[in-house]
Amino acid sequence: MLVLKFTNPKIGNPFSSAASLSEEKRDSIGVKRLSDARDEYTQIKPYAGMPKEVLVLYSSKARYRVPREILFWLTVCCTLALVAVTIAVIALSPKCLSWWQASPVYQIYPRSFKDSDGDGVGDLKGIREKLDHFEYLNIKSIWISPFYRSPMKDFGYDVEDFRDIDPLFGTMKDFEDLLAAMHSKGLKLIMDFIPNHTSDLHRWFNLSRTRDPHYEDYYVWTDCKPDGPKPNNWVSIFGNSSWTYDEVRGQCYLHQFLKEQPDLNFRNPDVIKEMIDIIHFWLEKGVDGFRMDAVKHMLEAPHMRDEPQVDPNKPPVSLVTTEWDLHSDYTTSQVGLHDILREFRAQMDIYSQEPGRYRFMVTESYDYEEVYKTMMYYGSRLEKEGDFPFNFYLLDLPHNTSGVWAKHLVHLWMGNMPKGKWPNWVVGNHDRTRISSSAGRLYVRAINMLLLTLPGTATTYYGEEIGMENINVTASQIQDPAGKYNTSASRDPQRSPLQWNADTNAGFNEKTNLTWLPLHPDYETVNVEAQMKDDGSVLAQYRFLNTLRQSELPLNRGWFCYVHADANVFSYIRELDGLKRAFLIVVNFGKESAVTDLSSVRELPDELKVLMSTTIANDGKVFPKSRIQTEVGEGLVIQYSTNTRFNPNHPEECYISEKACYLETIDILYKC
Ligand code: GLC
Ligand code: MG
Fold first, then answer.
1. 296 and 196 in contact (C-beta within 8 Å)?
2. Where is the Glycosyl hydrolase family 13 catalytic domain positioned along the sequence (predicted)?
């Protein structure tokens, strides 16, 4: 029986008068009274502080129970729906572009960027002074060529101490300040990492040549006589034998570059460990990635047999002296190389877990026509390696200026890149003739347009954004050791100081009259300051295209489709499924002006309006699609609107790294 124990002043005690009656009567009266009480309670409005028993009476009534149950089930359903929607959104969202995909990579050659202390050589403080340049250009990723302590035989690619800064460039504090300043501006710093060799002044080399038991095998040594024949026919990249006799140890050591750059022995696990420790050292400091130098040279065949000659009839000793004379079967791309690089990558991944702190890795390897070798640096499906290997094929653009050739070079990469990987494009660096000099000034703007409208990451070597050209360096001015061996191999011409303005020393050194290499005489007109004021300048066009690329989905992550290539013109489409806005790029790399007929491309509208031409006067021009005009070296970005995408009808002509579709109604991207 329900016993209600309470004396609420508003209700009183409904049982008190039944206390002296018989059990039976009491029961029947009790029941009756209880139902009376219930009726009575129903008259009472619920009030705060109601006891549990009353509450229970109310709560079981349909008018409270039903809404409660509805609310309960509604909450359950909504929660489940929310979870389902969250899972669906996560599953359907394409990956966001990472920083190394969204921005071009800008290469600073630190000797030549900006000299802050007036010694004629650029330095870290100088770089810090000029960070606004990157904000202006909308560039976020900066690769700085080596600034480790070095005797500068190969200008920093000969490292004496991997954990120290060369005084020429500044101090560790200068480096830390630079990194902090870059990070506070949202810029990423990519360091050069040089695993293949050290300087001959490195502590390890000294310990190795004196046969310290731990360091004895840190380098590649073999027996030879001081003036006897070399251990084999291997040659250095800078020419002549890659073996040098060391008097201290009485053996020969291997150097695939200068004799002052002995090759490390990566068959020794201690060497791998040392290099990993150095990677950790810089990642701990906060650097955002590494450009891995000369990776294909890291391992050599232990049997040390002669490499096959390209021309077997050449007298080996007198004429086989350059890398082009040999098939470098035993000194490059050896089995085991990728395992080492994947280990480096794995170490970098440990530091990539925090959001926005992805550490990037790019490898340098020139494999020429053996493109499949380059592609291996992308890693495999199961194991990551570089985010991309540098793509050097566009360096060959000048060899044959035509639309067909440009397409051929682009296709060398696109046609060989593993599915789902991210492309990249290089047209210059500190080792190669500036493209403005090899291709000619006429094509500079078109080449920048190509770089910034192709899919993937563009690399820009300092000065390319203003169309800087090579300088002439006389024999007595040569600084580059490679040039001292062979004048025509000198890399000085592409390393002249960046032309900031028309002042003394082009603003590179504002303190004294020193510059480590001569300036290009055109600096009074070709400089950053002058070009900032000119809407039609190479710089203004670079900036416009880079900004357009970063704000337009079809350009930064959409389809890339070949449309046309002939003796002059190379043309392609950038589009994204679901998005009406698309871009047609038409670039004239030939020797004649051209009229291109794209009337057979039915996905294009009949009239095409030029959003941007490298010839500023042609901005806004409208062409019928049957007659698109371009001058020599002119590039056009045409923006158009369409409901018909090109890629579904031409799958063989189109590439995309990660497919994504756009839903215009709610402005989102999804996997499709
Ligand atoms: C890389 C560098 C080059 C250097 C060589 C040896 O190829 O880009 O400048 O001379 O490695 O370190
Ligand atoms: Mg200096």
1. no
2. 107-495
Q: Which residues surround ligand 2, an ion (CB under 5 A)?
A: 115, 117, 119, 121, 123
The helix/strand/coil state of 661 is strand
pLDDT of residue 12: 41
Ligand 1 site-directed mutation target among 293, 295, 426, 490, most atoms within 8 Å of CB? 293
Of all protein residues, the one whose alpha carbon is nearest to atom 2 of ligand 1 is 293
Q: Is 347 exposed, middle or buried (0-12, 13-18, 19+ CB in 10 A)?
A: middle
pLDDT at 64: 87
* pLDDT tens digits, one per residue of 603-627: 999 999 999 999 999 999 999 999 9
Angle at 457 between CA 125 and CA 441, to 5 degrees: 75
392 close to ligand 1 (CB < 6 Angstrom) = no
The strand pair at 388-389 and 668-670 is best described as unpaired
| Residue 14: per-residue pLDDT | 40
Q: Which of 642, 527, 499, 513 is nearest to 576 (CA)?
A: 642
- Report which bound ligand comes closest to the CA of 159: 1
Please answer whether residues 597 and 571 qualify as being in contact, where contact means their C-beta atoms are separated by less than 8 angstroms: no
According to DSSP, the β-strands at 559-565 and 457-461 are: unpaired
CB 121 within 8 A of CB 164: no
Sites in the chain below the pLDDT cut of 50 = 1-21
CA distance linking residue 497 with residue 115, whole number of Å: 9
Give the residue numbers annotated as catalytic, written as ranges. Answer: 293, 364
pLDDT tens digits, 472-483 = 999 999 999 889
